[in-house]
Predict the structure.
Amino acid sequence: MAKKLIITEKPSVARDIASALGKFTNHKEYLENETYVITWALGHLVGLAEPEDYDKKLKVWRLVLLPVIPEEFKLKVLEGNRDRLRVIQKLIKRQDVEALINACDAGREGELIFRYIYEFVKCKKPVFRLWLSSMTREAIREAFRNLRSGEEFTNLAAAAKCRSEGDWLVGINGTRAFTARYRTLLSVGRVQTPTLAILVHREREIQEFVPTPYWEVFARFASPEGTYLGKWRNGEDRVYSQEEAQTIVERVRGGEGEVVEFEERQSSEAPPLLYDLTALQRDANKLLGFSAQRTLDAAQKLYETYKLITYPRTDSRFLSEDLMVVVEKSWSMLGDCGYRELVAGGLPRNALNNKRVFDKSKVTDHHAIIPTGEAIYWDTLNSDAQKIMDLIVKRFISVFYPDAQWAHRKIHTRVGEDLFVSKSKVLVEPGWRKVYGEKESDPQDFLPRLEKGGTVSVVDTWFEAKETKAPPRYTEATLLAAMENAGKFVEDEELREVLKENGIGTPATRASIIERLIEVGYVEREGKTLIPTPKGMELINIVEAIPIEELASPQLTGEWERKLRLMEKGDYSRDVFMEEIKQLTVEIVEKLRNKEYQGELERIHVPIGPCPLCGAPVYENQKAFTCSRWKEGCQFVVWKTILGKKLTRTQVRKLLEEGKTEKLYGFRSRKSKKKFSAVLVLDSEGKISFEFPTSRKSSTKEE
């Protein structure tokens, strides 16, 4: 009997499909019943060949041998995957297997995983596509009832290959060219380098910032209706000398004011849009301190393992109208899973007409992230999954709540020649904010209601000294927003939807881009903050000095991503895109070959601080921070990883300068494997010990 071979991206998905379809025999390497054979990849089994696979002399990184631009890209089995691929190949060649079903993740990378396997084994059998947005049994069965032809996804496959081949061309040639030219390992990439540029440009602003002192003047007014605070304004709301501020205070003190303007108005605040992955990662970073990768890992587990949410790697924040059944099921489920009070009123009757929720024209390959309607057993979820699930549930509930209502009052008070402005904004109807525990504001937060032309008394006046502040460093939340909009950070959610097509990378790849920048030593993570290292700063200095605009421009990278999305729709040519990437690759190599740039090596290797034993500079290498006189016998070293905790340059610099770090989290005991926190202490002999401030316990041992 003829059968179809189902290839999934992971073993867990294969088991879920078998469970949904029923009556499968487990053959260890695959599952089989009368209709289907199911087997699995382990992520990417097949990838693009290395340069030396085309020509052995390319194993040497020399500028004269670049650029490497294959006429036709070759595929190879990635290390450690040969046995798994052999199983798949054997199953594909079975006589009773008449067709294949691509059940890899429903997106660009899932398509690439399957297509590379299919092409590498030279398969010619017909292909069907299983397109899943949820891993519940009902969703899997429904998707199998609506299998689609593999030919429908030819454009998606073309975009996936262009992304892969484009990154290979720019990454391989760029990294080899920069490394050969400057004789130090410098990793560059079509996406990672513009992302680094965003961080570096902000760091330059901070380093070049000179604070400007200024003074603000305040007055407190009294009237029969109540007292209120006003801030001096004359075009600007500040002055730039203390003498002028003092003059205003003296001029106003003890006087009377006239209410020259009183304004009162109401405003509505619509609920936030449903989550896509990037919005979820941003909120998790702001509210929970989660990295983008940590959020993605938790969301993927909620999707794959627990079947509690729909496909998380989505870039849409809307639903199609046919999902109303899922919405109703989820709403009902939440009443029994800890949210009874919030869903007690039921769904609004006109929920389907809400264009901020249901708008098929704004749904891409996948809709927004919502609960699937499966019951939530909270005690089975780990801490991260619980927190991310709660964020998703509350966002889902909130979009069906009414707008929040705000009351605004503004008073302009003139005292002689001086004008003072007072404003209040209070929440009068929480609406959707009730989901997040917000209540009506205290009536005392209102400014008093005054009549225009009325008189008030000045009961107090003073000035406050302040200074302008440098722009803040990026957190993962704000960097994700910048990547989403190709460097154009916009707060308004609906405007972000309009600009989203020009983003750097995709929701599925942005977390890995950030982690890659940290891994190669271009960026350090300090709490929520991302800080470019001297090496990362210098790479962008080099790129911009040459200049190679395309490698440093978030906007241009966003334009490339836009073209890939157009390609997925059949509106952009794969050949044209690849020619553009090849031309860029040639330009990068030629500019590096012909343009000299002095001074970069000195700044790349910036010392961390002085060696506590001999006073020589301490430098960073791949595994440690070591004394520069190690060849002369100085043995001082601080390993980058101590008991599982990865140290940053900033932390080691503080250790060298002050003899101890702040309290650090994430060490793991060798014996118990439990995580603990401690302060690292450096003694006069260059030895590092742990200090435990709460218990006053210290140790030089690795527990």
